[in-house]
Amino acid sequence: MTPAPSARVTTDATAEPARRVAWADVAKGLCILLVVLHHVVGKHLPLVVPDTAAGAAVVQAWVAVDTALKPVRMPLFFAVSGMFAAGALRRPWPLVAVRRVLTPYWTYLVWLAVHVVVFATVATAIETHRVPGVLEGLTHLLLAATGVWYLYALAVYFVVAKLLLAHVTPGAAVAGAAVVSLLASWLPIEGVNRYSVVHCFVFFLAGACFPRLLAGLPRLRLPGVAALLTAYAATAAACLALGAPKSVFSLALAPVAVVLGVQLAMAVSDRGWAGGRAAGPVAALGRRTLPVYVLHMPLLGVLHQWLVDAVYANPDHGDAVLTALRGGAALPSGAEPRTPYLSGGVPAVVPGGGAARDGGAELLVALAWAGYPLLLVAGLVAASLLTHRALLRLGAGWMFDLPAALRERAQRGPRLSGR
Fold first, then answer.
1. What is the 3-state secondary structure (H, E, C) of 279-348?
2. Cα 78 to Cα 201: distance, rounded to the nearest angstrom
């Protein structure tokens, strides 16, 4: 998510002229959409869907979709990021340290502070990792645990990859990273995001070490895609049957998932989908993933907080909001909320499962809610990009890139020697 003017990759160590990878920006655009969808489904959707059998089915269906896409989302994102970094890994430190290390880490620090403030003040209801104190906050400087961990990972992954490749072969480096990723479930790591920092390094390193392999994947025809889907389903079923830990599950599925993700990106980027018309907006989004990544969660948190306050903390307004969310069905007297799920004891689903309603009408409302996550994803992406534009106009470009003064100072300061 560091600023990148074009999706180019150097395909060998001699630094040949980079060639355009047509699907790469599309892949990044698809990945950031999946990231936003993941947060909408996991952190927000249960609050607003009506508490009915059909409503529960909507939530369960979206959770199943999100779970199925998990082996694609971050592995593909990091593999493409590694592919973009391949050429930089072969250049001397002075030429790459500012852009590949200092810039993403600076952006991580800025948005870590923003997220800490937002989720401690104006978005306290949404479930997310929070920093409870100064000492805990200091640990985040060394090992990320909040929702902006990807930026931290970009900086750290590049440093570790460059140091590794100065001493071992690419194959040995990737093999070692795969072992660490495989064992991540058994390591004493607290928090899902810190686990992800350890687990996902192998995908970045594989993309960086073997960019030609990823960039040169052929476009498969329908039988090939069907075979990959079958392999994906069979591997997932085997892992579930054996009770495989999540690190084993993810690493077993990721290679097939990444290839499937690339195939989808290829389909969007050429005439295979709507005459290629879908590629433009998705590729443009792929070149602007940073503002969406850092802004969508605060925006979602504010929306989530408004709904919580309107429904649960405002008796005068709450009934009207509940009725609207339930598709017009009035809340029955004495209705009790479900078991709390959200932080602060806020019920996970809008109360009122006992409301009398026609089964057909209930189904129609549930079907309407089934499209809500997609609409909200589109809204959050648009709002993030608009907020980014507004911040740039207000002179806050330093929130998304290393300030020029710091950049010049870093370039004039002591330089790392060697590769």
1. HHHHHHHHCCHHHHHHHHHHHHHHHHHHHHHHHHCCHHHHHHHHHHHCCCCCCCCCCCCCCECCHHHCEC
2. 8
Domain of 223? 8-27+81-283+395-412
Cβ atoms 198, 177 nearer than 8 A: no
Look at residue 373 and tell me if it is in a domain.
Answer: no
Give the distance, in angstroms, between the CA of residue 152 and the centroid of all CA atoms in the same chain: 13
pLDDT band at 313 (very low <50, low <70, confident <90, very high): low
The pLDDT score that the predictor gives to residue 227 is: 94
- What mean pLDDT do residues 166-182 have? 97
Cβ atoms 268, 26 nearer than 8 A: yes
Residue 54 counted as domain residue: no
* Residue 223 three-state SS: helix
What gap in Å lies between CA 342 and CA 312, rounded to an integer? 13
Q: Is residue 141 one of the residues assigned to a domain?
A: yes
* DSSP structural state of residue 19: E
3-state helix, strand, coil in the chain (%, to 5): 70, 0, 30
pTM: 0.85
pLDDT, average across residues 253-262: 95
Please report whether residue 92 resides in a domain.
yes
Structure token digits, residue 99? 């852009």
Under the banding of pLDDT at 50, 70 and 90, the label for residue 273 is low
Question: How many structural domains comprise the chain?
Answer: 1
Give the pLDDT score at 130: 80
pLDDT tens string 183-197: 999 999 888 999 999
Flag the least confident range among 205-219, 285-299, 389-403: 205-219
**C-alpha span between 37 and 176 (Å, rounded):** 32
CA pair distance 62, 60, nearest whole angstrom? 6
Which tokens sit at 136? 């805990």
How does the average pLDDT of the chain come out, rounded?
83
